[in-house]
Amino acid sequence: MLRRKEGTTVAAVIKVTGWQTHSVRGFFAGVVRKKLHLNLNSEELNGKRVYRISDGKRRNDARKGGHKRAP
């Protein structure tokens, strides 16, 4: 859904997955952006926020082993 040219909305992901709004947003931030380091962009179209992975490639700022986790 995120890789489609037209992107997707939080509401569409909720409909498909049955997740709650905060879970979808957490997935976008925690998994798509932080863990997978993908370029997730959003824009407002016709009064709705649309999310899409812009090129399917990893972000340029993705850390490569330099990030240290707190103990």
Question: What would you note in describing this structure?
Answer:
This protein is 32% helix and 27% strand. The protein is α+β, with helices and mostly antiparallel strands. It has a domain of 45 residues. Strands 1-2 form a two-stranded antiparallel ribbon. The protein is globular and about 25 Å long.
**Global shape:** globular
Structural class: alpha+beta
Gap between N and C termini, in Å?
36 Å
Nearest-integer average pLDDT: 86
Give a quick rundown of the structure.
Helix content is 32%, strand content 27%. By secondary structure, it is an alpha+beta fold.
Summarize the SSE layout with pairings.
Blueprint: H1 10-17, H2 21-35, E1 38-45, E2 48-58
Antiparallel strand pairs: 1-2
Features:
single chain, alpha+beta, 32% helix, 2 strands, 2 helices
